[in-house]
Amino acid sequence: MRFEISKVLDAIEGRVCTDPALARAVVDLAEVIRWQNLDGGRPASLLRLGMVIDALAQQLGEDSVPVYAIVHRALLSDADLTSNERMVVRRWADDGLVEVLDHPGDRVLEVADLLGLPVLSRGRFDGLSGRYPWLGQAGRVLAPVPGAGGPVFIAHVGGGQSPASGSRSPVGAKLLARQWRCPEPGCALFGGGGGGGAFADLARVDRAPAGQPPPTLRNGVPTCPRHGVRLGDAGPRPRTELLAVRIGGLVRRRFVLTESQPVLVGRAPDSSGGIVLGQWLNDEARRWISRSHVRFELRAGRGELIVTDTSTNGSGVRPGGSMAESDRIALAPQQSRALGEGDIVELYPGVQVGRADELPSDAKFSPTSVMAEAPTMAMRLPRP
Ligand SMILES: [Zn+2]
Question: 48-52 long-range CB contacts below 8 Å, 24 or more apart?
Answer without folding.
Answer: 49/12, 49/16, 50/8, 50/11, 50/12, 50/15, 50/369, 50/370, 50/371, 50/374, 51/144, 51/150, 51/151, 51/371, 52/27, 52/120, 52/144, 52/151
